[in-house]
Amino acid sequence: MLLRKENILIVDDDVNILELLQRHLQSWNYHVFKAISVKEAVTILRDTQIDLLITDLKMPEVDGFELIKFVSEHYPKLPKLVVTGYPSVQGSLAAIKSGVVDYLTKPFTKDELKSALDKSLVTSEVQVVPSKNSSEEKSNAYGDIIGNSEKINDVIQVIERVKDNKATVFIKGESGTGKELVARAIHYQGQFSRAPFIAVNCGGIPENLLEAELFGYLKGAFTGAETNREGFFQAANGGTIFLDEIGNASLTVQSRLLRVLQEKEVVRVGATKPEKVDVRIIAATNSELREMIQKQTFREDLYYRLTVVEINVAPLRERKNDIALLVDKFLFKYGIEYKDRFLKITPEALEILNRYNWPGNIRELENIIQRAVIMCDKVVDVAHLPDHLKHSIAFSADTLVPLKIVEKEYIEKVLRATGNNKTKAAGILGITRKTLRQKLDH
Question: Beta strand 141-142 with 145-146: parallel, antiparallel or unpaired?
Answer without folding.
Answer: antiparallel
